[in-house]
Design goal:
Elements: H1 4-11, H2 21-48, H3 64-79, H4 82-85, E1 89-91, E2 94-95, H5 97-117, H6 120-141, H7 150-169, H8 179-203, H9 208-230, H10 234-258, H11 270-299, H12 304-332, H13 344-362, H14 368-394
Antiparallel strand pairs: 1-2
Helix pairs in contact: 2-3, 2-5, 2-14, 3-5, 3-8, 5-6, 6-7, 7-8, 7-9, 8-9, 8-10, 8-11, 8-12, 9-10, 10-11, 11-12, 12-13, 12-14, 13-14
Length: 399
């Protein structure tokens, strides 16, 4: 169905707006990172749980987290800002968006090949490119070209700093095998999303002091997470991680208090109900993930996988699904009929994550845990297909 506004512009001889090409490139490379990360995860799930794998990439689990955190999630969050970055020149007429995309996805690709081939120089080169991309992204998000309250920008900066520090920490240890490094890497999307919700809280009356407090807490949480990764003393390292988790929990509590998704609204259409439900579900998974990470930090084993997937799939995945009717039409400059939204992808991603987290927790006690964990990968694939269907259902052609 054509966009009537676009048709009027076309008939009047006015240009129809389209996003810059770099936006399509960023979204495409994020999707490819997601696909590669998903395939390696499925292959590893099959082998680790005693099932045959049709994908010969079971050892790809070693770079699966890098593909998902830096490539898929990082790429998607950065792609949302690429149109603004096109107006921010880095050197002469070269927009900052171009090197960010090149460094990030080039770095993820080289990093993955380096891990897969055990070629350390390639791994370090890939990580240095990710570091460069995160520093450029930090430069843009902290600049005047990115409009917004300075305290909110400080939280965004803390989020990107965790991405930078995770890449630095990744030079000495792989993400998939290091609990503290995994948590530090996850702080990037966690704090980034909380900063986005903070913008709504500001509109809803969040005071300046509370906003400043959140900025301090965010930076302190990132600092403690990095200390936990780098300090060799086990007691100090564990204490720093526990403190970082507590600080993130405080930030989460503040966000929930001021978030409009947790306030009663008299009139609530289908789209508003979809967004509210998705955000509430995502915060549930974040809370559970923080609890599981706390148990992992204290006990030392048994909770890393369920904690990671509770946040990676449950919190981040549900949040992206909930915001997709807003984010993707704006990004692609298409008219959206948001009331056409369906709850199916939100329901399916919740079922998939319940299966994964329950399966991971149950593995030590019953063989059913392995089955639930394995099946969750295919449920998640179905959720992704429903997510794409949902996007197509609400968007209409620009021309």
């Amino acid at each position: 169905m054509p966009d009537p506004i676009a048709l009027k512009k076309k008939r009047a001889g006015l240009p129809v707006q389209h996003p810059p090409r770099i936006v399509y490139i960023g979204i495409l490379l994020s999707a490819l990172s997601l696909a590669a990360g998903f395939l390696t995860g499925i292959a590893a799930l099959a082998v680790n749980n005693g099932y045959p794998s049709i994908i010969p990439l079971a050892n790809g689990i070693t770079f699966h987290p890098d593909l998902m955190v830096f490539g898929a999630v990082g790429g998607l969050l950065i792609s949302e800002k690429l149109e603004l970055m096109e107006k921010f020149p880095l050197i002469r007429n070269i927009p900052i968006s171009r090197p960010i995309v090149a460094f990030l996805f080039g770095g993820v690709f080289i990093l993955s090949l380096g891990i897969l081939s055990s070629y350390e120089i390639a791994r370090y080169a890939g990580l240095l490119l990710v570091v460069a991309a995160s520093l450029l992204f930090l430069l843009f998000m902290s600049s005047n070209a990115n409009h917004g309250d300075k305290r909110i920008k400080l939280v965004f900066a803390a989020a990107i700093a965790s991405m930078f520090l995770a890449a630095i920490g990744n030079m000495n240890s792989l993400l998939y095998s290091n609990m503290k490094l995994t948590f530090l890497a996850l702080l990037f999307p966690i704090l980034y999303i909380l900063a986005e919700r903070m913008e709504l809280g500001f509109v809803r009356g969040m005071g300046a002091r509370i906003m400043a407090l959140q900025a301090y807490i965010a930076w302190f949480a990132v600092g403690m997470a990095f200390v936990s990764v780098e300090v060799p003393d086990k007691f100090i390292s564990r204490f720093a991680m526990v403190l970082s988790i507590i600080l993130v929990a405080i930030l989460t509590g503040i966000s929930i208090k001021f978030d409009p998704a947790f306030r009663k609204i008299k009139r609530n259409g289908r789209f508003q109900h979809f967004m509210r439900a998705g955000i509430q579900i995502s915060f549930f998974w974040l809370a559970l993930g923080l609890i599981l990470f706390m148990l992992q930090a204290i006990i030392g084993h048994g909770y890393l996988d369920p904690a990671t997937h509770s946040i990676a799939i449950g919190f981040i995945g549900s949040f992206i699904v909930a915001h997709s009717p807003v984010i993707f039409p704006l990004t692609f400059k298409k008219k959206a009929i948001q009331e056409n939204v369906t709850f199916l992808p939100l329901i399916m991603i919740t079922i998939a994550n319940v299966s994964r987290v329950f399966g991971d927790l149950a593995i030590p006690y019953t063989s059913l845990g392995e089955t639930f964990s394995y099946v969750s990968g295919y449920l998640l694939l179905f959720a992704i297909l429903l997510f794409v269907y949902n996007i197509k259902k609400i968007m209409v052609s620009p021309d």
